[in-house]
TrEMBL record:
<feature type="domain" description="RsbT co-antagonist protein RsbRD N-terminal">
    <location>
        <begin position="24"/>
        <end position="158"/>
    </location>
</feature>
<protein>
    <submittedName>
        <fullName>Helix-turn-helix domain-containing protein</fullName>
    </submittedName>
</protein>
<dbReference type="InterPro" id="IPR042070">
    <property type="entry name" value="PucR_C-HTH_sf"/>
</dbReference>
<dbReference type="InterPro" id="IPR051448">
    <property type="entry name" value="CdaR-like_regulators"/>
</dbReference>
<dbReference type="Pfam" id="PF13556">
    <property type="entry name" value="HTH_30"/>
</dbReference>
<feature type="region of interest" description="Disordered">
    <location>
        <begin position="193"/>
        <end position="340"/>
    </location>
</feature>
<dbReference type="InterPro" id="IPR025736">
    <property type="entry name" value="PucR_C-HTH_dom"/>
</dbReference>
<dbReference type="Pfam" id="PF14361">
    <property type="entry name" value="RsbRD_N"/>
</dbReference>
<feature type="compositionally biased region" description="Pro residues">
    <location>
        <begin position="328"/>
        <end position="340"/>
    </location>
</feature>
<feature type="domain" description="PucR C-terminal helix-turn-helix">
    <location>
        <begin position="469"/>
        <end position="526"/>
    </location>
</feature>
<feature type="compositionally biased region" description="Low complexity">
    <location>
        <begin position="206"/>
        <end position="327"/>
    </location>
</feature>
<dbReference type="InterPro" id="IPR025751">
    <property type="entry name" value="RsbRD_N_dom"/>
</dbReference>
Amino acid sequence: MEEPPGAPPPVRAALAALLPRTGEMAAAAVAQCAAEIPAYRVLPAGVLEGDLVANTKAVLDLFLATAAEDRLPTAQELAPPVAWGAERARDGVPLQAVLQIYPLGARAAWLAAAAEPGVDARLLVTRMLGFLAEVMPRVAEAYLRERQHLDWEQREDRQSLAAALLAGRPAHRIAERHGRTLADSHDLVVFRLPRPSAPTGSGAQPASGASTASNAPPGPGAPATSSAPTRPGAPATSSAPTRPGAPATSSAPTRPGTPPGSGAPTRPGSPATSSAPTRPGAPATSGAPTRPGAPATSSAPTRPGTPPGSGAPTATGASTGSGNPTVSTPPPLSTPPPLSSPTAVFRALHAELDCYPGVLAALEDGGGVLLLPLGDEVTEVADARLLDRLHAATGLRCTAAAATARTHADIPAAHAEALELLTLAERLRRPPGLHRLADLAVEYQLAQPGPARGALARTLEPLREHPHLLDTLRAYLACGQHRGQAAHALTVHRNTLTYRLGRIQVLTGHDPTHPDDIRRLAAAMTAYDIESSAE
């Protein structure tokens, strides 16, 4: 049975008696907001005591009127509060603070109404909750819509200013039109992010015949094992690197008592090192067929999350399923998960840069250009801190290069220098991080076209047919000619590294262990990588 229109007469009378007091209740609610919510304390007194109190009073008047008539407010009646929510967005008041004033005002109205005789408390609470449920979502929607519009305006301003400066056009008038003040000097940071990879299902099983090895790229000099199935009956060769001239082990059956791929007998119970069938129940250490349901993984226990068949990731130098040490550098626990789509990365970059209003940015797919105003903080520290923030926002570690522009007229040249440095760092396979001209001065000079660069690159031409020797020289240089570290990075024995260094000397005529020759080989390695990437 429907209720008759309008609240009961005692309730209407009590609510009508509260109308003269809405100004008092509004002032109390705003004062409480200013005392409890920091965002309101920074507003000018004219806004707090004028607009905000007047707006709160109007909302209380609307609530009392609609509650007395036992109805919800109409869209037309809610238009002013909704517009005020958008105004608070333009004032920079957080959404939480905008919405919090409504329950505070409702509390003030409740305390005043509950003291009136003849008021049904349950009916009043029902009307109050219905009113709040109607007005607060609309205010929040208007606030977010206005905030989004303001964010895009700021981003467009940031983009247009950056584009003007990068093109060498005057930007002061554009800055004044958008209410910005441009710094005289900037640090230009050009950065690129790796392409985000689509997430893979953790429970997915490889197809029959597919490799179950880890997707991690091998270290320098490590052989690349193929995941393609072999023809029926073909021997499955081990993926472990062998020393030059060593026989390759195969899965062909051997006489009893000898391990596959070797002529030496072994004692009973020795583990099989190839894909030969093992005794029932024995763990399979390679691609050997096992009993139904047995996992084709290393016999060593692995921690949860280790991909089947790889034995990795392990601690540095730990043994994997193939018996070879691997260099595994797990990411720190604080590393965020990388975003899985370019759109998500683009949005995360914009959202993070919104926290740095002084930084101008021209973003594009997979990277962009940042113009950081030079200030009191050390430039390198400020640049690195911002890049760390971008990494935290996207989960992707970027490769970047920076150059300084002392005036606006220097910005195009600084941009060209930073872009050239970034391209050079990528061609030289430098790790992610921030690079400056001082870091790549020798490489930058060698990158300039000319007969000297070609002559240096031809020094390593005899190694072109021996990619493992090129990888060995590259790792040896990256480790500062430290043999132990280089052997560890290559997952080979020190004797293997020594043998390869000797082969490099024989083929090139330059001794990697001699100070004069290693300088030439280092320059030749840089020139070779630059020439190869340009092919």
